[in-house]
Design a protein that fits this description.
This protein is an alpha/beta fold. The chain has helices at 20-37, 62-73, 94-103, 118-123, 141-155, 173-184, 213-216, 241-248, 252-255, 278-281, 288-315, and strands at 11-12, 51-56, 77-82, 108-113, 129-135, 162-166, 188-192, 208-210, 222-225, 263-265. It folds into 2 domains: 11-139 and 292-315, Rossmann fold (3-Layer(aba) Sandwich); 141-291, Aspartate/ornithine carbamoyltransferase (Rossmann fold, 3-Layer(aba) Sandwich).
């Protein structure tokens, strides 16, 4: 394997807390794993004799499945828990659930939870390695990493690229992880969305803020479209889906106004004809399926790195992080 920055972290809580070198370390290892990630029956063996727990307290299809495939590609045993199947539905605390699972021999916990900060709290109360698979509106670091990998493979170095993230920014943990990762690797990020989903506070995090997509659409090398998270909206954030699509959908007409080499991304699931019409979602500019494939490789890399860091930590007599 190529020489990489040394990885010492036994948890992945968010890209906000990683250096550019640590992010690049994950991406480089994911590149090495990419071919085997999409080949059934392949295994790196990097997690042999390890148990990975998927603890998903919010619904998930792509992320939970991707982590399960990634763990198996690394040779791990996979245990899957959902909120409905766990004792948290009976009043057990999250920490007690995790400690009981740890006592059964789990090495890595991959967790999605509705509460921001839940992954960090879990990491402080268990000796398992913890990977954040989405905590409320805070972060979704592996989605951010797979987006970075997809852009890097399509466009080369990220430094100097202009990236637009369009849609429901206020409720998007994906937008936050992308912002941290992209800016640390030298990209220029613009958040675009209606004022009810995007306010000037995001400028303090390092993003440009725009509310008129048509006024800036020709500036970007990458456009990443986000789903409207209706389940997180208590009040109407826009008059109708039709009105939202009129102003913010990446239509065929808008695509014609972009740079010729501009690429289109979406973390899924897509609301067709809201964020993207099928002609764009399935068109030659889109990198949506490569994002999914790269997600397995990225998660293989993250599982491998945190597991190895945990082994080193425990070998030195380490206890709960």
């Amino acid at each position: 394997m190529a020489q990489r920055h040394e990885w010492k972290l036994m948890h992945l809580i968010g890209l906000e807390y990683l250096s550019a070198e640590e992010i690049t370390c994950v991406l480089d290892l994911a590149d090495e794993f990419r071919e085997g990630a999409v080949r059934a029956g392949s295994s790196t063996g990097t997690l042999r004799d390890r148990a990975v727990l998927n603890l998903f307290m919010e619904p998930s299809t792509r992320t939970s499945t991707s982590f399960a495939i990634a763990a198996r590609r690394c040779g791990a045993e996979v245990i899957t828990f959902s909120k409905a199947a766990s004792s948290t539905s009976k009043g057990e605390t999250l920490v007690d659930t995790a400690r009981n699972i740890e006592a059964m021999g789990a090495d890595v916990i991959v967790m999605r939870h509705s509460a921001a900060g839940s992954a960090r709290m879990l990491a402080k109360n268990t000796s398992c390695a913890v990977i954040n698979a989405g905590d409320g509106r805070h972060e979704h670091p592996t989605q951010g990493l797979l987006d970075l990998m997809t852009i890097r493979r399509a466009r080369g170095a990220l430094e100097g690229l202009k990236v637009a993230i369009v849609g429901d920014i206020a409720n998007s943990r994906v937008a936050r992880s992308n912002l941290w990762g992209l800016t640390k690797l030298g990209a220029d990020v613009t958040f675009v969305g209606p004022p009810t989903m995007l306010d000037a506070a995001f400028e303090k995090l390092g993003a440009h803020v725009e509310h008129d997509l048509d006024s800036c659409i020709g500036e970007f090398d990458v456009i990443n479209m986000l789903r409207i998270q209706l389940e997180r909206h208590r009040d109407a954030a826009f008059p109708s889906l039709r009105e939202y699509a009129r102003r913010y959908a990446l239509t065929e007409e808008r695509i014609l106004k972009t740079r010729p080499d501009c690429v289109v991304m979406h973390p899924g699931p897509i609301n067709r004809d809201v964020e993207l019409p099928s002609v764009v979602a399935d068109g030659p500019r889109n990198l949506i399926l490569p994002q999914v494939s790269n997600g397995v490789a990225v998660r293989m890399a993250v599982l491998t790195l945190v597991s190895q860091a945990r082994d080193a930590h425990m070998a030195k007599g380490g206890e709960v992080a």
